[in-house]
Amino acid sequence: MTHQMIVEHLQGCILPEWNTLPDFGLYKDQMISFVNRALPSLSGKLDLTASMINNYVKAGLIDRPVGKKYSRESLAQLFMVILLKLTTPMDTVKTLLHPKDGTETQALYTLFRRYQDQVVSEFQQQEGAAPLLYALKSSALQYVMRLSEE
Predict the structure, then answer these.
(1) Distances (CA, A) of 26 to 71, 118, 131, 133
(2) Cα Rg for the chain, rounded, in angstroms?
(3) Cα(70)–Cα(60) distance, rounded to whole angstroms?
(4) How far apart are CA 25 and CA 42, in angstroms?
(5) For 39-43, what is the mean pLDDT?
(6) Which of 22, 93, 148, 150 is the most buried (most CB within 10 A)?
(7) Would you state the pLDDT for residue 115?
(8) Domain extent listing, the chain
(9) What are the start-end ranges of the H helices in the chain?
(10) What is the rounded distance in angstroms from the CA atom of residue 89 to the CA atom of residue 107?
């Protein structure tokens, strides 16, 4: 895969702006459909199911539905879980999405998006970098994450 193709893939994983998320309750099937449309780069790789959403709720990763409808906050949490779970242990994901300082979901989601933009921008500027560089960065960042949990 070329550098430009990877950049396009990463751009296809950038989450929608908070104000574009539905501010009314969504049923599980609507959440799945919304997520699949919003993350075209993960289409065919995501395989998000209703039982996965149930498991995320049971694990405390996303807020419980009210009357079978999920809130905007739940949808935002689901987006972040989907992207973080690719490389991050679920216990860590839970800690990140429910910080002890009480940060609201909207603020956390907005920060998450800003960090996504920053990561894609940095990656765009590293055209021609060796895969070893990415492996080392990934390893170092995972190590930092583990240290911050101690």
Answers:
(1) 7, 30, 40, 41
(2) 16
(3) 14
(4) 24
(5) 78
(6) 93
(7) 92
(8) 3-149
(9) 3-11, 28-38, 50-58, 72-84, 90-97, 105-124, 131-149
(10) 22
